[in-house]
Write a structure and sequence with these properties.
This protein is mainly α. It has a domain of 82 residues: YggX-like (Orthogonal Bundle). The structure holds zinc ion.
């Protein structure tokens, strides 16, 4: 089996074993796309969006899949919705990428909302405690714990949405890629948690038995 084929198999297993994990579906979709399996990738990305409807980058990739599949109408629909989601969240890179794709399809790009940038307001009142957070008084609290456990609650209470997104969309995937973590194993999950805690500046949990 090719290396890509092996990784697809690994993430397919992760997505099956842990069907509520949007990251698993997301990575599987990306790998399928890389492998030219666009129809399959659509399923993974649609599942990712069911679990994480604000994940704007997924709309972009889903739109690209529909373009590859020659389903222009669905591409326009998904990209238009994704553009609005990205704009609302201030996700500039996926937003601009989706605008380009829409233009390439000959479809109109939605108008930017006139919402004033958050940074000239009086502040949101939420303070992010992550060392190195750049959001300052623009920091927004996540509407809900991003993962359904204790650490998720802690993240919601102490870390801003910007920092969570930075971790979730970018760094967590790098950690998984570069360390080749298999999140279906206990070792992989522990390593993943450790990197996440380090990023958020959480102290290590009380020293337990080292495996
Ligand atoms: Zn922050």
């Amino acid at each position: 089996m090719s290396q890509l084929g092996e990784r697809i198999a690994q993430f397919r297993k992760m997505a099956t074993d842990d069907p509520e994990n949007e990251l698993g579906h997301f990575r599987l979709g990306q790998l399928l796309m890389e492998d030219g399996q666009h129809a399959e990738a659509v399923n993974s990305f649609e599942r990712t969006l069911e679990l994480s409807p604000q994940f704007s980058k997924v709309f972009q990739l889903l739109g690209e899949c529909f373009i590859k599949l020659g389903q222009k109408d669905r591409a326009v629909e998904v990209l238009t919705k994704g553009w609005a989601t990205a704009d609302e969240r201030g996700d500039k890179m996926p937003r601009d990428a989706m605008a380009k794709l829409l233009t390439g399809l000959g479809a109109p790009v939605p108008q930017a909302q006139a919402h004033s940038p958050v940074d000239d307001g009086p502040g949101t009142g939420f303070r992010c405690q992550r060392p190195g957070c750049m959001e300052g008084n623009r920091a927004r609290q996540l509407p809900a714990p991003p993962v359904p456990d204790e650490i998720g609650e802690r993240i919601q209470q102490t870390v801003c949405a910007g920092c969570w997104n930075l971790w979730f969309r970018d760094l967590s995937i790098k950690v998984i890629n570069e360390l080749r973590l298999d999140l279906s194993s206990e070792f992989g999950q522990n390593e993943y948690d450790r990197h996440m805690r380090e990023f958020f500046g959480f102290e290590e949990p009380a020293a337990g038995p080292v495996r």
